[in-house]
From TrEMBL:
<dbReference type="GO" id="GO:0032733">
    <property type="term" value="P:positive regulation of interleukin-10 production"/>
</dbReference>
<dbReference type="GO" id="GO:0032753">
    <property type="term" value="P:positive regulation of interleukin-4 production"/>
</dbReference>
<dbReference type="GO" id="GO:0045840">
    <property type="term" value="P:positive regulation of mitotic nuclear division"/>
</dbReference>
<dbReference type="GO" id="GO:0050852">
    <property type="term" value="P:T cell receptor signaling pathway"/>
</dbReference>
<keyword id="KW-1015">Disulfide bond</keyword>
<feature type="domain" description="Immunoglobulin V-set">
    <location>
        <begin position="36"/>
        <end position="114"/>
    </location>
</feature>
<dbReference type="GO" id="GO:0042102">
    <property type="term" value="P:positive regulation of T cell proliferation"/>
</dbReference>
<dbReference type="GO" id="GO:0031295">
    <property type="term" value="P:T cell costimulation"/>
</dbReference>
<keyword id="KW-1003">Cell membrane</keyword>
<keyword id="KW-0812">Transmembrane</keyword>
<protein>
    <recommendedName>
        <fullName>T-cell-specific surface glycoprotein CD28</fullName>
    </recommendedName>
</protein>
<dbReference type="GO" id="GO:0009897">
    <property type="term" value="C:external side of plasma membrane"/>
</dbReference>
<dbReference type="GO" id="GO:0045066">
    <property type="term" value="P:regulatory T cell differentiation"/>
</dbReference>
<dbReference type="InterPro" id="IPR013783">
    <property type="entry name" value="Ig-like_fold"/>
</dbReference>
<keyword id="KW-0325">Glycoprotein</keyword>
<dbReference type="GO" id="GO:0098636">
    <property type="term" value="C:protein complex involved in cell adhesion"/>
</dbReference>
<dbReference type="InterPro" id="IPR013106">
    <property type="entry name" value="Ig_V-set"/>
</dbReference>
Amino acid sequence: MILSLLLALNFFPSIQVAENKILVNQSPMLVVNNNEVNLSCKYTYNLFSKEFRASLYKGVDSAVEVCAVNGNHSKSLQSTNKEFNCTVNLGNETVTFYLQDLYVNQTDIYFCKIEVLYPPPYIDNEKSNGTIIHVKGNARLDQCPLSSSGFQLQS
Ligand SMILES: *[C@@H]1O[C@H](CO)[C@@H](O)[C@H](O)[C@H]1NC(C)=O
Ligand SMILES: *[C@@H]1O[C@H](CO)[C@@H](O)[C@H](O)[C@H]1NC(C)=O
Ligand SMILES: *[C@@H]1O[C@H](CO)[C@@H](O)[C@H](O)[C@H]1NC(C)=O
Ligand SMILES: *[C@@H]1O[C@H](CO)[C@@H](O)[C@H](O)[C@H]1NC(C)=O
Ligand SMILES: *[C@@H]1O[C@H](CO)[C@@H](O)[C@H](O)[C@H]1NC(C)=O
Ligand SMILES: *[C@@H]1O[C@H](CO)[C@@H](O)[C@H](O)[C@H]1NC(C)=O
């Protein structure tokens, strides 16, 4: 009874936190034919003169950090997962991840993330809908030798 009263009075400030989030727009799907792609993350926020961390994650659970850039427009530090070849281009409201040397088995959903670190308050994004990056095979590399044992089921 007390709880419902508190809820009715909007006693819990955390309820309002969600309003203070950056929204990220990224294209739903990108088809990759030549093993490279530019994934643009467009934010409802101007990063100009802010210190931020912009990153890209792979997988439905965002388990793999693909690439990240930490800093501001004049000075930034990039880190890349060793399984990826990534270059980051910074704009005021857009960060583009240029991925090269993609493999077919890296086809997955990728999520953009943005965090504003300074000046306060800290603000990050509402989880985006993500982009499915579909890496199409190069015909020559895709030929799969038949298994001589006959036990393995290859795609
Ligand atoms: C994400 O998907 C939802 C539901 O399909 C849609 O309403 C929303 O506009 C999408 N958000 C963006 C940023 O595209
Ligand atoms: C991605 O962007 C880079 C740098 O802006 C450009 O050189 C490259 O051609 C672009 N690649 C694709 C596939 O759009
Ligand atoms: C960018 O970051 C560097 C190093 O942290 C700092 O010295 C510089 O003042 C910052 N520039 C802006 C425009 O915030
Ligand atoms: C990324 O790929 C480009 C084009 O294939 C290549 O020139 C560059 O050396 C690669 N960078 C790394 C770190 O592998
Ligand atoms: C970035 O934003 C700043 C401040 O809003 C503005 O002065 C500048 O012209 C913008 N740059 C671009 C390339 O839009
Ligand atoms: C993905 O494919 C590449 C090239 O075929 C291979 O080197 C790499 O080990 C594979 N990665 C995984 C996680 O299977």
